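Forwarding the complex inputs:
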Amino acid sequence: MSENGMIGKARRGTAKKRDSADRTQLQTILIRFTRHRPAMVSLVLLGLIVLFAFVGPFFWVWDHTVYKEIPSNLPPGGDHPLGSSAAGNDVLAQLMRGAQQTLKVAFTVSLVSTVVGSLWGATAGYYGGRVDALMMRVVDIFLIVPLLVAAAAIAGSAGAGASWSAIALIIAIFSWATIARVVRGVVLSLREQEFVEAARASGASAPWIIVRHLLPNAAGPIIVAATLLVAVAILAEAGMSFLGLGIQLPDISLGQMIGSARTAVTTRPWLFYPPGVLLVLICLTINFIGDGLRDALDPRQTRVRR
Amino acid sequence: MTTEYMNEEHATAETGDDVVLEVSDLSVTFPSDDGPLPAVREVSYVLRRGEALGIVGESGSGKSVTSMAIMGLLPRNARVEGSARVLGQEVIGLDDKAISQVRGKKIAMIFQDPLTSLNPVYTIGYQIAEAVLAHRKVSKQDAMKRALELLEIVGIPSPEQRLRQYPHELSGGMRQRVVIAIAMANEPDVIIADEPTTALDVTVQAQVLDALQRARRETGAALVLITHDLGVVAGQVDRVGVMYAGRIVEMGPVEEVFYRPRMPYALGLLGSLPRLDGDRSDRLTPILGSPPSLRDLPPGCGFAPRCPMARERCHQEEPRLLLTNGDTGREPSEAGAPTVHTAACHFSDELVGVGAADLFRPGEERPETTEGEPEPKNPVEPDVLLSATDLVKHFPIRSKGILRRKVGEVQAVSGISLDLREKETLALVGESGCGKSTTARLLLNLIRLTSGEVTYMGRPLQGLSDRRMRPLRKDLQLVFQDPFASLDPRMTVSDIIAEPMRIHGDGHRDARRRVKELLELVGLDPEHGSRYPHEFSGGQRQRIGVARALSLNPRVLVLDEPVSALDVSIQAGVINLLEDLQDELGLSYLFVSHDLSVVKHIADRVAVMYLGKMVETATTEQLFSAPAHPYTQALISAIPLPDPIKERTRERIMVTGDIPSPANPPSGCRFRTRCPKFANELSDVERTKCVEEPPELLDRGAGHRDACHYSEVVELI
Amino acid sequence: MLVYTMRRVLGAIPVLVLASILTFVMIDVSGDPLADIRMQQPPPTEEVIQQAEARLYLDRSMPERYWLWMTGIGGNGDIGLLQGEFGPSTQGPQYEIGPAIAERLWTTLRLVGAAMVFALGLAIITGVISALRQYSKLDYTLTFVGFLALAMPTFWLAGIMQAAGVKFNQLVGEQVFATIGDGRFRAQGEPLGDQLVNAFAHMALPTLVLMLISFASWSRYQRTSMLEVMNSDYVRLARAKGLRNHVVIRRHALRTALIPLTTVVAISVAGVIDGAILTETVFQWRGLGDFFITAVDNNDSYALMGWLLLSGIIVIVANLVADLLYAVLDPRIRYE
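Prediction (whole assembly, three chains):
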């Protein structure tokens, strides 16, 4: 707020009005989002999962590492509500840690990819022509390599598997291209809008136009794409860990838990199902939130619901 | 859907056999997040065999929804009540099988946008034959033969070839004629044409209307012509219904409604129209306010909030559509008698002999604007502000690959010279693709010239860097066509108006006061600065656009089709505003438009463009009273006059064909391929000159210049 | 059309070249093919290491090696993609990358192909139903199933399916589904009927898994595309002509709504390959997935590069086919 107290007081009347007008836009977005019931339920659920993953470990007696005190292959119940692994881990603790690592990787991927992809896509879209053609060809190249395999290959050969941040970076290398494509498309159409030309006709510079007009108007699609990318990254990380090329023991991720429980589907299902269910739940909620955000942010998708 | 079941035999017995379409109490409601939207309310009308009925109204008046409801083409969630009978058969609520036998056979429809109404993946022939095969048991060859015949009727050149072509290979005008051919394929009894020419250029509009008339003659079908263009209605229909906020508010023979309107809205609509046959000094009479939101309609008359003669009763009681014959007293209308004139106004009797200006122009009108011509003709010409010499702009056509080789070029502007003088309005007119908007942008140095020179107050603009250009931009501002696309939806109105000031680094405190001033200046509530653009109507948004352009105190405003996206009743207000601002602030306008009626009203001088060239330039009076170039003549005579008698009796100069592609313009005179003079009057020797030699823009006296080897003045209005 | 095809094919070449550079550089900088040798106990002599370096061309600079990898000029005849050689393997001199890939390519392509065909069919059917019954219970159910499939980790679903297959076999007391292996070796030399049964037994579950993983996004896309077309002017005109609803849907809506799907399917081929690798691993197929994991384990750089390039080629070819198909389906492109 730039207004100082006195002016603020004197202007309370108009300020109130201003708020109500300000609200209208944010409010419509919020209202539309809250009306999307699956998205709202998902938001709550995802919040609980995040709490479980990041706050849960502080309240649980065990952590994810191996304990001599824990007998191996305990079925769920008693001191170990989700049982224990062959090596002597508490599965519940593993689940918390696994979800935490998975989420950290996924959000980092989304953040890095969105920043890089938005800049790349916005530049290509704004300049257009040959610059655009060249930059998008680079994007094509990243899109034709299978994400999971390429990331796994690099992680595997680099032996970088141990750290979650390295894994995140590698996945990001192969996933920023999708964001770039989305942003470029949006910017390309925004660039032709009359309000951009109006700014140019008033003498606005390129950075002014990008910061004041293009980015705020592209924010909706970018947010949606970034959200959906979180789910993609989760599945990629899980796949890598499953192949043994992602996060390595003693650290743990959900994908890795499933990978090591692969042979125990029928004999010790408590090792196989919980991480999978949690993984599905995370991706599902994120996809629904993305869907809700799209409905709320993208006016073209506005539709009359029953 | 709630419909009474109607016994077919009973229905036929009831209505006279010359009635082909009877709509009674038709209502359509759409569900929405914020409650039901009554888009159409209790519409009733009768259409007789061979008759043409016009339905006019502004956007959102429900005119299209009505006919969609009759055709059963509304989305499933729409609630349709009431009845519509085609040849006595109830069509509302029919199942798919039954309605398919009515559609296309008894009642056909033509849609607004010819570019999207044909399926891109099938040939023209296939799509016409499909319509034939839907209702006739004939072979595919016969259907194709019929398609060929239909294409000939609607006047498509080389029809055999067209049958095998895909829609994208045809121009908009041709595609619309194909749609007309589809509509008449099974000789329907009723053709509904929903804004059939709105998306087309005027010269092409004339051709398509002609094709529509031929289709009617050929099939004997009755016509429902839905349009917002009062001129089109005046020339094409026998009776007309005026719709407002989902209701028919006036209906009668076209002459009655046009010459003796009995509902203030119809009167206002006619008064707000700039007319080709009007006088320039006549000020337009806008209808204040904007149409009500369908979500919360006023309890009484829908028009009452905007009506100058509204009284207590108007706000409480919704008027019914009643006969207007003043002597016999007002009675409910007997649906359909062809000469009956009805109006939905409690006080329609008071409108006898009242003109639009008497009713809508309040007494407190500022006196200075009615003084007539602002200044007498000075012997000394005012200074030239903005001057262009031999402007050329070619856009390269590039290959799709990574190399983007240049494979050709669009000659958007090929040698335009013009001078804009101080405090004058120069209009740049022409049809789509003539390069008028490109010229405007070249003048503002928003796109780079291929060659030529632009000077502002003697200073050359071309080649100036963005930084060097910036100070000059204060003086040269632009107003856009689309009031929705030209305002950033994520900024408040204050921020939008203040943006040019911020770009030029003007103080914030000052900016806030200035925004209020500007809002007031353009006739908006200065307290509304904190709102977002989507909260305003089209006309208000256009005013915001004007305020933004004025924020830096420019001397020149380039107006790119500033009113063509607006409804008629709104348009007049914006035109008046522009005129007032010019008087008040001493602005010079470059007014880019395709609408000659508006141009005639607002401009001092006019330059007519065709395919990147200027074909004629003169003062407004000279140009309209004595157009010399055949293209100008064709353009003027293609504009429909909102006056039934004049429109039907005037002499017309028609052009044929479509505008050639600017990527490959004709040699010599660019207009020769469509020129009526070239086609009908000239000898072969004379034609050679047109083919070989591009005509120059020559002065024919008194500053009236045209570019035709054989120009000849004709009086058209 | 021929010109168009030629132009498309030529346009794919630079992408392929750039992709090869990218793969080469990434694999080259990230891995050390000699890691295993260096780790050997007792530590190998300098000579052994140099020998291995020379055999794997590691004594040359990276650009030189790329050039060598592509052309084989100046190599020992075991390298040069243009000559059909993929380069020396770390898995011993007798291990030839080219034939090893070729042997497994068919196994994987069979799975990918079958899964894509079924997924496409399912996607179109569900997408169209969803669109036609927009906001009905059925639409919501299909939407939820689609989202669930999108959220499902391939290998987890594969694991569940495998377990379910085993359960099913136990229940009926017969080996209906083979849950391990691709069944290639057992099938040879048997009568055709048995071969087919055997192929089905091995193919059914992995194909089902990959199909479920792939169909969802296509189905969503088909739904959107269909809805858009259903609201288009030309569908309205088709109705106005008096065509029956089912004719309008089949002839005008579906036909046009399928066009954009070709591009979407082509782009997602890369994702399907990812899924195939995971599925194969769970069902222990000797396909490209197994090849890949072995290559990673052995730091086999040339094998990995060859693998990635191959999958790149598959994706590019798929896109090329989609482009051509698009042109066939859409006359607006054809004549450009």
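The mean pLDDT of chain C is 83.
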